[in-house]
C-alpha cells in the first residue's frame, strides 16, 4: 500500500534553476514510494473519493509548504537546558496510517526490516543543548548527529559537515535516513541558526524518520550528491521548518523530499533551490500539493511545471507500467508557468483557484505507461482564474469558470475526443477533452487549503 503525503506551501519564495521537486509530496513536498503501485479504480470520476493509502518512494515536492499568516512565537532562548519534553504549542499532524515505520517494507524484490542501528559522530540519547560547535562526519554511511531514545536536543549555531566518497546512498538513505547530516528517529531535534553541508551520496541535510520530529529555523543547507535531499521525512517522520535556505545539486535530490512511509512537512518562509529536472515530479505515490502565493523562478530549460506519471523503474520505484501517481494539486492566488504532464496510469486533479494563473500546455505522455490504464487528468479553472495555453493540450475533464486563451489573448478551441466542439476558438491551439463543463466545482480543493490543519507555533528553543 502506498502512503499519502501532503505538501502545503504558502507564501514561500522558491528559486529553482531547473528544479526537481518531486512532490510532495514541494517542495513540498512531495511523497514517494518504492513499493509496487496498486491497481487504480476504473472509475475516472472518483477524483473526489478517498484514495487508497500508499507507501512512499522518491518524489520530491517542488513539494514545499509555507504559512502566509500567523506570527511565530517570540519565546526566549533556553539557557543551556533542553526542553522539558513538551511539544511547542500546536499539535503536530497525525502520522500516516498503516505499517509502523520500523516495520520497513523494503525495496521491490527484497525483504527488509529497516535499519537495526545507526552510526553517528554524535549520538544523543538524553536531553542536551549544543551551541556554536562544528561537527564533521567522514565515515561511510554515518550520520553526523543522531537524536533517538526519546531525547530532546537543542542544536543552535552549529556547523555540520558530512562528506564521504564511499557512501552508498540507496534505499537505506532514502527510506531510513542513513548518512544524513542530522537525523531524528525516536527523539526531537531543534535545529536553529546553523549551517549544514553534505557531499555524500544519499546524505540529506536534515531527516525525520518514524517517531522522530524536527523543528528547524534560520538554517542553510547545501547538498551536492544524488538522492541527497535538503529536508527529508520518511517512515511517518515529522518536520517543521521556518525561513530555511536550501540548495540541492544532485539527481533525485529535492530541496524538500519524502520517501517510503511518507511523513509530514510544513515549511514557512525561506528559499529553495534545486538544480536538476523539472519543477514538481510525482510518481508511484499519492500526493497532495497546495501552493499559495509562492514566488517561483523557473530556469529557461525547465522541463515541466508538474509531472504526474509512471516511471521506467530505473531506481526501483514500483513496477514499470503500473507505477503511476495520484495527485491532488491546488493553486491559490498562484502564478504558474510550465507544462503539466500526465499519463493514463496516473490520476491528477489540478485546481486553479482564487485568481491563480497557469501558462503552459497540459500533455498526455504515455512513455512510461506500459499498456495504459484508466487514469485521468481533470483541470478545474475557477472564477477570475486564467489558463494561458502554450500548445495543443490533451486531458480528461475540463471545468471552466474562468478564462482560457493563448498567449496573444485569442480564445482556444475546446473539443471532445469524439469531435464535438464545445468552444470554437480564434487561436491556433486546441484542447482535447473527454468531457467539458462551463462551470468549475472547486469543492474538491477546499480541505487541502486549510493551513490551520498544519500550522504549529514556532518553538521557543528556536528563538
How would you characterize the overall build of this protein?
Residues 31-115 are annotated as: Disordered. This protein has 463 residues and is mainly β. The chain has a domain at 4-40 and 51-113 and 245-462. It has one helix and 38 strands. The chain has one helix spanning 171-176; strands at 4-10, 13-15, 59-60, 120-124, 128-131, 134-137, 143-147, 152-156, 159-163, 182-184, 188-192, 195-199, 206-209, 213-217, 220-223, 231-234, 237-248, 256-258, 263-274, 280-282, 286-292, 295-297, 306-308, 326-332, 335-337, 340-342, 347-353, 357-359, 362-364, 376-381, 386-389, 393-394, 397-400, 403-406, 413-416, 421-423, 430-433, 435-437. The strands form five sheets. The protein has a 19-stranded parallel beta sheet that branches. A hairpin with a 4-residue loop joins strand 35 and strand 36 (421-423). The radius of gyration is 21 Å and the shape is elongated. The relative contact order is 0.18.
Amino acid at each position: 500500500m502506498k502512503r499519502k503525503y501532503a505538501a502545503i506551501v504558502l507564501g514561500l519564495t522558491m528559486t529553482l534553476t531547473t528544479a526537481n521537486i518531486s512532490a510532495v509530496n514541494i517542495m513540498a513536498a512531495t511523497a514517494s514510494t518504492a513499493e509496487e503501485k496498486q491497481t487504480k479504480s476504473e472509475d475516472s470520476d472518483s477524483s473526489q473519493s478517498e484514495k487508497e493509502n500508499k507507501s512512499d518512494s522518491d518524489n520530491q515536492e517542488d513539494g514545499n509548504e509555507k504559512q502566509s499568516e500567523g506570527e511565530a512565537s517570540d519565546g526566549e532562548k533556553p539557557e543551556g537546558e533542553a526542553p522539558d519534553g513538551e511539544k511547542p504549542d500546536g499539535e503536530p499532524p497525525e502520522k500516516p496510517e498503516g505499517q509502523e515505520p520500523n516495520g520497513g517494507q523494503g525495496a521491490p524484490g527484497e525483504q527488509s526490516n529497516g535499519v537495526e542501528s545507526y552510526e553517528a559522530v554524535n549520538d544523543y540519547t538524553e536531553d542536551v543543548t549544543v551551541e556554536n560547535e562544528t561537527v564533521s562526519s567522514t565515515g561511510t554511511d554515518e550520520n553526523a548527529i543522531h537524536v533517538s531514545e526519546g531525547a530532546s536536543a537543542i542544536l543552535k549555531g552549529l556547523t555540520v559537515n558530512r562528506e564521504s566518497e564511499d557512501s552508498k546512498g540507496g534505499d537505506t538513505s532514502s527510506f531510513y535516513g542513513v548518512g544524513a547530516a542530522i537525523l531524528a528517529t525516536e527523539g526531537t531535534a531543534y535545529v536553529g541558526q546553523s549551517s549544514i553541508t553534505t557531499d555524500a551520496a544519499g546524505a540529506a541535510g536534515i531527516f525525520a524518520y518514524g517517531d522522530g520530529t524536527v523543528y528547524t529555523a534560520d538554517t542553510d543547507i547545501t547538498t551536492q550528491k544524488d538522492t541527497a535531499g535538503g529536508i527529508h521525512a520518511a517512515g511517518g517522520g515529522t518536520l517543521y521548518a521556518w525561513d530555511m535556505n536550501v540548495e540541492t545539486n544532485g539527481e533525485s535530490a529535492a530541496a524538500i523530499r519524502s520517501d517510503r512511509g511518507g511523513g509530514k512537512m510544513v515549511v514557512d518562509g525561506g528559499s529553495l533551490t534545486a538544480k536538476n529536472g523539472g519543477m514538481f515530479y510525482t510518481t508511484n505515490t499519492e500526493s497532495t500539493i497546495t501552493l499559495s502565493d509562492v514566488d517561483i523562478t523557473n530556469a529557461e530549460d525547465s522541463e515541466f511545471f508538474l509531472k504526474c506519471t509512471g516511471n521506467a523503474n530505473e531506481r526501483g520505484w514500483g513496477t514499470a507500467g503500473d507505477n503511476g501517481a495520484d495527485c491532488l494539486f491546488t493553486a491559490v492566488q498562484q502564478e504558474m508557468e510550465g507544462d503539466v504532464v500526465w499519463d493514463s496510469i496516473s490520476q491528477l486533479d489540478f485546481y486553479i483557484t482564487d485568481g491563480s494563473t497557469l501558462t503552459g500546455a497540459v500533455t498526455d505522455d504515455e512513455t512510461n505507461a506500459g499498456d495504459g490504464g484508466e487514469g485521468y487528468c481533470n483541470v478545474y479553472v475557477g472564477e477570475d482564474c486564467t489558463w494561458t495555453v502554450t500548445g495543443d493540450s490533451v486531458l480528461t475533464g475540463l471545468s471552466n469558470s474562468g478564462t482560457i486563451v493563448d498567449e496573444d489573448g485569442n480564445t482556444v478551441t475546446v473539443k471532445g475526443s469524439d469531435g464535438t466542439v464545445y468552444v470554437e476558438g480564434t487561436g491556433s491551439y486546441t484542447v482535447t477533452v473527454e468531457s467539458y463543463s462551463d462551470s468549475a466545482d472547486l469543492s474538491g480543493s477546499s480541505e487541502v487549503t486549510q493551513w490551520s490543519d498544519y500550522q504549529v507555533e514556532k518553538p521557543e528553543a528556536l528563538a
